[in-house]
TrEMBL record:
<keyword id="KW-0732">Signal</keyword>
<dbReference type="InterPro" id="IPR001338">
    <property type="entry name" value="Class_I_Hydrophobin"/>
</dbReference>
<comment type="similarity">
    <text>Belongs to the fungal hydrophobin family.</text>
</comment>
<keyword id="KW-0134">Cell wall</keyword>
<feature type="signal peptide">
    <location>
        <begin position="1"/>
        <end position="20"/>
    </location>
</feature>
<dbReference type="Pfam" id="PF01185">
    <property type="entry name" value="Hydrophobin"/>
</dbReference>
<dbReference type="GO" id="GO:0005199">
    <property type="term" value="F:structural constituent of cell wall"/>
</dbReference>
<dbReference type="GO" id="GO:0009277">
    <property type="term" value="C:fungal-type cell wall"/>
</dbReference>
<keyword id="KW-0964">Secreted</keyword>
<keyword id="KW-1015">Disulfide bond</keyword>
<protein>
    <recommendedName>
        <fullName>Hydrophobin</fullName>
    </recommendedName>
</protein>
């Protein structure tokens, strides 16, 4: 009986544990899509956000929102992979130079 209780307790605490994401540059974002600048037309993206095309060296994220915490409405439920974007524009809807977020415990 104690073994079942201990197992249940371990599973419950395991379900409550949350992965922490960290970024070396920029804020953690959940973007609807992340692709290379060429796939999005780098010139159009550069014109839209007001930067030189040469400044876009990484991936571009569209329809981004910040991952600010845990729970409903905070961005914790990201349907795509969380990314770290060096710069965000248009109220964080567009991110440039994005890289996958590092997951740590």
């Amino acid at each position: 009986m104690f073994f079942k209780f201990a197992t249940l307790l371990a599973v419950a605490f395991g379900a409550l544990s949350v992965f922490a994401f960290s970024c070396n540059t920029g804020a953690i974002q959940c973007c609807g899509s992340v692709q290379t600048a060429e796939e999005y037309n780098a010139n159009a993206i550069a014109d839209l956000v007001g930067v030189a095309v040469s400044a876009i060296t990484g991936q571009v994220g569209l329809e981004c929102s910040p991952i600010t915490g845990i729970g409903p409405g905070t961005g914790a439920n990201c349907a795509s992979a969380p990314v770290c974007c060096e710069h965000t524009f248009s109220n964080q809807l567009i991110g440039i130079n994005c890289t996958p977020a590092v997951i740590g415990a």
